[in-house]
Design a protein that fits this description.
By secondary structure, the protein is of the alpha/beta class. It is about 45% helix and about 10% strand. The protein binds 3-hydroxybutanoyl-coenzyme A (3HC).
Length: about 675
Amino acid sequence: MTSPIRTERHGDILVVISDNPPVNALSAAVRQGLEAGIKEAQGDSAVKAVVIRCDGRTFFAGADITEFGKPMQEPALPMLVDMIEACDKPVVAAIHGTALGGGCEVALGCHYRIAVPSAKLGFPEVKLGLLPGAGGTQRAPRIAGVPLALEMTAKGDPIPAQKAKDAGLIDRLAGEDSLIEDALAFAGEVIGKTPLPRASLKEAKPDRQAVEEFRKKNARRFRGFDAPAANIACVAKATEVPFREGIEFERQEFMKLMMGVQSAAQRHIFFAERKAQKIDDVPDDVQKRDIARVGVIGAGTMGGGISMNFLSAGIPVTIVEMNREALDRGTGVMRKNYENTAAKGRITADQVEQAMGLLNPTLDFDALADCDLIIEAVYEDMDVKKDIFGRLDKTAKKGAILASNTSYLDINEIAASTSRPEDVLGMHFFSPANVMKLLEVVRGDKTAKDVLATVMALAKKIRKVAVVAGVCHGFIGNRMLMPRQVEAQKLLMEGATPEQIDKVHVEFGMPMGPFQMSDLAGVDIGWHRDPERIESIRDALCAEGRWGQKRQAGFYDYDDRRNPTPSPRVAEIIEDFRKKTGARQHDVTEQEIIERTLYPMVNEGAKILEEGKAQRASDIDVVWIYGYGWPVYRGGPMFWADTVGLKTIVEGLEKHGFDVSPLLRQKAEKGERFN
Ligand code: 3HC
């Protein structure tokens, strides 16, 4: 096999070039090639300086994650970085694209760094449940100081080249189109300069206050995760002990994380998210349709949020409402949302105007005629939706994609109200639609392959994570939510309190528990609206106007700032029902709550797989991470089930009398996993 690394001579400069698409991950072959390149430079007196650069779209984007968990081939990355730093000829990193993780560590091992202005540097390891394990936590604070090193390692967001330059992580900015020439010139300039700047020889200034403040400020964000604390500890260590000792500490912490279940879960999600884009029977190169203008029907919360995704990506939107008041209210909310984002400094005032300038609000349904994709986002009523799709069939141009944002309803039935079911599919956004990253793309029986492929590609463009779901009630996410909510209600009857159940879910890592979620979404959603008909606790709450946060009362009482407190009235209602139904009362334990609310979700996930409504278990995990805030360090419900053990899950389900999915049972019996 040819090496992904080649060398070129430019006078007395040796250029070591990596060509390992797509992202120049530091695979064994790349590391071996780089080692050979440095040895070549060391062994040749005619070489006076070295430039390391990459072909393709980016500088090294990190260690090769696919090698994790397998026996490490020499040279290990930390040795390689040390070797580069120890080279007695100046080594210059020439950076474009993203220097990430191990790639950034290679750059910091080099004596000098030059980058194009569009380049970014970062340590995203923490997002994989890891820390920079090739000296990054020790070199970064020595070069850039403790506060920035903490930000970069423990949060994992990359920084732009200019910021890196201000912090000393980059020595010089190259021209955007002249990196190679500028890097050669830079290398030429530093030939013979002594001593060579070696990061390991610098001192990291202790900054205990910065460490404490950083910890405190981000406590909420880091809740439940192991890796941020380990990153912080390593950066702090860099200021306390000599370099070698710090490296030793970093190694130990890295290995602990690498062996742990959290990193396995986070790496699983990294690949799961990318796999989700692939549709088994749709080739990658299928010709996609052009989407130059999007139409949205309904300017309510969902319609507005959906529109914003496209506007932000520079795609014009025609939004249609039934009356002027609703239209104005809807566009007003969109503007306000943009302005709030601008007030936080995340976008500029110009960008607000640019986005809003792409919006065409109208009362004229026929204005949808020139749209390439039309998304219906009106309320959940099959007759209304069928009527709209019937009208769309007459109005939309030939080849336009017709989508419904329904969260439960049958896409096949909706499609059948048109003469072109092949152009119809579901695009289920999650509220708030401009924020939540998940998009369930619902494939009807007749949906054309190019329609699916077009929408999946478009999802990426508007920065959503899209997952394909088959037609079934609630698709993947809401379908799995149902057994959880039902069981949570039953537990109330048997002696648990809403706060007790919610607490177990929050401690598990969910952003909120089933009852907090009900209160936020609206307890009245889907209620029959007959205050006389009281058949459930929910009916009783709704009948008294306890509709959730919007009424400052639901399963909890809320103050003006929406802080919840347990409600004595709700306790009474629950007690009443317990008496009426005569449900068996017992002490509900934390473990029982897990077994009865989370195991059934896994069971439902298995049924979804069995019925072919999801392509793969990892897709289900992606839905729950990005749509419902399942803790990423537990890898999604199906991955989590693997870590619990499928046999244990089946036993738990049987103990509580659930109807176990045959697929789940089969896997448990064979000792298999979902992922
Ligand atoms: N190792 C192996 N494969 C990788 C990879 C890596 N570090 N980074 C990306 N890939 C693969 C992806 O899986 C994907 O494969 P596919 O086409 O088969 O699905 C392909 O490269 C392209 O990736 P994206 O679709 O993500 O491409 P984008 O252009 O959208 O993004 C990127 C590029 C910003 C580099 C993004 O891929 C990314 O964030 N990669 C991960 C970077 C990272 O986490 N680096 C740290 C690794 S850990 C480490 O370095 C440990 C060290 O400290 C010891």
